[in-house]
Design goal:
Number of helices: 6
Structural class: alpha+beta
Number of strands: 12
Helix content: 10-25%
Radius of gyration: 24 Å
Order of helices and strands: EEHHHEEEEEEHHHEEEE
Shape: globular
Distance between the termini: 41 Å
């Protein structure tokens, strides 16, 4: 007989903005985020028997997100995600797992006349800081931190050769090429038992995010890249060394191509190889390189 083998539901794209005011200094801090809540548990009858008595409404999830943002810290995002996820598994005994994803959008404080402005901000890029927390009843809280949408480019310092060549290969080896990608980097933490335990580790999350971002940018810039694969492995290895509580690091890097334009048809104008200055940025298709590096022996 057919049965529900997997089911989850929830509320996506919950937009939240919080302002915190320091009365002593007159400075304000702002956080804007997009939240997703997904629940699993003893909810099969909602699908098979039209039994809504097991349904925590998605509107309730939205209202709960607002209430938790008012009553609890929203920074670091890992802590807020853990608080929100654990609320659902603690409050509703038939909900066995709650998955919360927080996407934190950039608002960077403006500098005006050489000084930080107390209440004005600018969005200086599409990069986001993300956090995902899953609360499983009786098993604790798993957390994944992430950097997403960080667009980077280096105009030299990248090569690619020694790859498989056969009857399907027309790509030419190169000792120098443009390398550009949009960074999606994540790191998974050891499971924590409760939201209070997550709170006691809050400072680690900010430190790890700062280190991971710095490692990503510095390694991208200074590595004489033999391939995207090798460069991303070096990044993973360094991030694992940041904190022993990090269990695994993953990267997903699309290879954003910039192709030389042959202009020799126009009066013999040279614009390839060492003479290349004008390129054609490509949108797709693109290479996509991914890996996960886990602590410990293979």
């Amino acid at each position: 007989m057919p049965h529900v083998s997997a089911a989850r539901y929830g509320k996506d794209n919950i937009r939240v903005y919080k302002v915190e005011r320091d009365e002593a200094t007159g400075f304000q801090s702002v956080t804007e985020m997009t939240v997703r809540v997904m629940l699993e548990g003893e909810i099969d009858t909602a699908y098979t028997a039209a039994d809504n008595s097991v349904v925590v409404t998605t509107d309730s999830m939205k209202q709960t997100t607002y209430l938790m943002a008012k009553q609890y810290p929203v920074n670091p995002p890992e802590l807020f995600a853990a608080i929100l996820a654990s609320h659902f598994t603690d409050t509703y005994k038939h909900i066995h797992s709650a998955h919360v994803k927080v996407v934190q959008h950039r608002w960077t404080r403006m500098t005006v006349d050489g000084a930080p402005h107390p209440h004005s901000f600018m969005r200086d890029g599409a990069e986001t800081r993300n956090a995902e927390a899953t609360s499983n009843q009786g098993q604790g809280i798993s957390i994944r931190s992430a950097i997403a949408g960080l667009l980077v480019l280096k105009s030299t310092g990248s090569a690619f050769h020694g790859f498989v060549k056969d009857e399907y290969t027309i790509l030419k080896p190169t000792d120098d090429r443009i390398l550009s990608t949009e960074v999606d980097c994540g790191w998974a933490w050891h499971i924590l038992k409760t939201a209070d335990e997550v709170k006691s580790s809050a400072s680690k999350f900010d430190q790890a995010w700062s280190h991971a971002r710095e490692i990503t940018l510095k390694t991208f810039a200074v590595d004489s890249s033999a391939s995207v694969q090798n460069t991303m492995y070096k990044m993973c290895d360094q991030i694992l060394a940041v904190d022993s509580s990090i269990n695994a690091v993953d990267y997903s890097l699309p290879n954003k191509h910039y192709f030389e334009i042959d202009m020799s048809w126009h009066k013999g104008l040279k614009n390839t190889g060492k003479d290349a200055e004008v390129y054609e940025p490509q949108s797709n298709p693109n290479g996509l390189i991914q890996c996960t590096v886990t602590r410990g022996e293979k």
